[in-house]
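Bug #77: duplicate submission created two jobs. Keeping one. Sequence:
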Amino acid sequence: MSKAAEIDIVSVSKVYGTTTAVEDISLKIPAGTYCCLLGPSGCGKTSTLRMIAGHESISSGDVRLGNVVVTDLPPARRGTAMMFQSYALFPHLDLIDNVAFSLKMKGVDKEKRRAKALDMLKLMQMEAYAKRRPAQLSGGQQQRVALARALITDPEALLLDEPLSALDPFLKIRMRAELKKLQTSLGITFVHVTHSQEEAMALADLIVVMNDGRIEQAAPPRDVFERPATAFVARFMGDHNVISGRVTGERDGMVVFDVNGGASLAASGQPQEVGAPIDIAIRTDHVRFGEPPSPGLGFTGIVSNIEYRGATVKLSVTGAGIDDFTVIVDDSDFFARPVAIGDAVPLAWDCEDAIVLGRLHS
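Kept job's structure:
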């Protein structure tokens, strides 16, 4: 039976002096979920993780693990384990004693704790290095030891603070696969802080996009990518063009709006008040180039940059009051009818590809 716990964050805020780091967030992380807290530096994701862990006090609100309110419990009594960005291994201890350290603090006898530490090192395929010191290991190996040390207490939730940030790109991808495999086999709840969209998409069952101390969207990766909730999420996840304007009316079940100093465009969505601000997102790979658009579903612009990327070509286009519109096209489509910088090209997209975004911070 899995030992995983549901984590329930209820109206939690964190205030440092006059600065609000986390503002009244509520979030349910189902038991056994791999959850990534994603966002730019300073958005509140690490403060949130540290409040779940008990390394940071909560200014207001509660954190519940399973059916226990852990808000005022010390870290050791929460049933969570934290893996820090720096790994924080003891340089003078061998790997077995590093991994067994928390059991030693709990008074578990030497033989028992060393046997369990060796089991954890086996789980991480590190038993051959058991007698080594941390300085004799590579970054990836140190990380495995830090994971073993975090997991030896049988936590209900493992909390990871940017665990891959110190690794080189190839090792990052390998460790990503190992973390996912580990979480699946252990079945416990993982909460992982990252500022890498790619990492979050590759690992998470639930992505929580944070900005300015608040949650902009919490959803499975595909939903966050296909249906970003706000302009911030669309921009932060990348691969979307965000266009802003003011509503002028509706036509055939579509919202019609004017881009400042430019085109009149349309998007599928609920009728909105005339004059209201509106943001829409269009996936960069859902735009067709060289095809005259239907009314409101495209524009003609001037190509300002072309980047060849192998399987695809990235075009930057300016026009219709839109400064930098990105189109990703198949390399075969591009070279069948290439364009040059300075050329005027018509761009078109389908009605369902223009998504009206919500406005969290108006």
